[in-house]
């Protein structure tokens, strides 16, 4: 059935000219189309079923049948705004730090020591293979060990400030590391499509200083790569649960989990809601990337 | 004169084991267009990059008007550069590309736009200011790159094979245009190329480099007619090597006695260097020599002639192609003029030297 369903609506689309063409030629596109439909259907089932199930769960009510109350309650729910703002703030800070860290490093490696590129690549990919739980264990140890040994030094204040529950810098640092692989991939693809060396030399030759050429030449030409790096980082921060939860910070995912105990419907509604927000961001960013392509 | 005098003094540069520059000395006079010519890996691009400041020589100095600029960073040098690959900033319009250097120097917008327009008119593309690089052809992009390099009125212009990515026709018109602009602006220009035709047709002087050293520097006619070394003779143009017997300052070759020019080797067994266009080929059924291959090139034809176990190249006018078809028996003579000789190489009986065809 799966093979037939997509072929049904597709069939009328096939122009008669192709259908009348030589057998081999007409047969192949049709078979490709059928398979395309199958893949699409399987993917759609995989992604849509949980979504629809979640949505149905949030709008079903034993007495009234259909209700959007759960969505109405999101805004009034205790801690929603605060945790969402905290997560967004952490996301923005992480993006700024990770980009300031990787872009100059990658550019420098590409321009002057291409031999180090594999080393940088491995370094940046490493976080993928280290489970978050190990991070937490390491960070917790440091945070406990730190204050005892640094009590008399200025670092004491720093380590305390980094754990401020209103804006835990320590989470930003952890997220920067988690985001490295994604940011590296995105920027590497962007830089690969750019003849960075020639552009840099042309700008230097015209008198541009390093900061000038970085912000006026490299960044504008890497816009879509920077956008996708930022988006991936933001999505990562908005969805990260393990580290934040184990270090006892009320980020957005942690908050969803917390209220799911008392208000199951609201927590699922929030999940659907945050998914929509993420999609919206993705749309905005990809359309920004498309605009750049047509503009440049 | 707007051009500066550029001096390269004993430039030496090593890249992890390979020597790119090996004590290069060269003085470029104000307002001169000099072509750096040589096979790939001869160090010509490295030399140019030393002048631009993208490369630091291990030893030696670069002087502009007598001032040592070897350690001056690239963005504070007074030299405009055009690159081999397309180097326009993709995110900026053509006008902003040309005005980039002025913007860096914080020139007011109105003034720099006027200057950009002026330069676009100079390169013959006044109407494209609002367009973006990807909308231009390769030739147009290189012209804009030239305008951009000239925007700051540099006293030295550096051209790093700017025409090699273009197709043949555009290449010829653009090189004439570059030459015209260079002459009218009087700007000292260093032009790196591996294309001998380009070097010979554009430059005031051509410097032939080999393995990081200067082999010969001379005006194009001298370089072609009076190469001082066998390397130059073979690299610039095509040369036949024909065995001959030396006696005093004359050499006997193909039954002719010709005066010798330049250095005379110690041995009497020598090879005479002969350009294909100085080989005269006439049909003669009684002769031993025979035409093997004839390749028609429009105005001329290049013939490959076999004479005993010797093969040589000869250029004849295009209209002679019919009567000089492959298989024709011919008589081979040389034009009566002084020739260069070099000691016999061990290479089996003088084979025509590799052809450096115009790419």
TrEMBL record, chain A:
Domain of life: Bacteria
Domain ABC transmembrane type-1: 84-285
GO biological process: transmembrane transport
Coiled-coil annotated spans: none
Annotated GO CC locations: plasma membrane
Subcellular location, record wording: Cell inner membrane; Cell membrane
Protein keywords: Cell inner membrane, Cell membrane, Membrane, Transmembrane, Transmembrane helix, Transport
Keyword Transcription recorded: no
Residue ranges of the TM segments: 38-59, 84-107, 119-147, 167-187, 225-248, 268-290
Location, primary (coarse class): membrane
Membrane association type: Multi-pass membrane protein
InterPro entries for the chain: MetI-like, MetI-like_sf
Family to which the UniProt record says this protein belongs: Belongs to the binding-protein-dependent transport system permease family.
Protein name, UniProt field: ABC transporter permease
Protein's organism: Planotetraspora mira
UniProtKB/TrEMBL annotation, chain B:
GO molecular function: ABC-type quaternary ammonium compound transporting activity; ATP binding; ATP hydrolysis activity
InterPro entries with a match to the protein in the record: AAA+_ATPase, ABC_SmlMolc_Importer, ABC_transporter-like_ATP-bd, ABC_transporter-like_CS, Mo/tungstate-bd_C_term_dom, P-loop_NTPase, Transp-assoc_OB_typ2
Keyword Hydrolase appears in the UniProt entry: no
Keyword Acetylation listed: no
Domain ABC transporter: 6-236
Protein name: ABC-type quaternary amine transporter
EC number of the protein: 7.6.2.9
Keywords: ATP-binding, Nucleotide-binding, Transport
Enzyme class: translocase
Domain of life the protein comes from: Bacteria
Coiled coil regions in record: none
GO terms under cellular component: ATP-binding cassette (ABC) transporter complex
Transmembrane segments annotated in the record for this chain: none
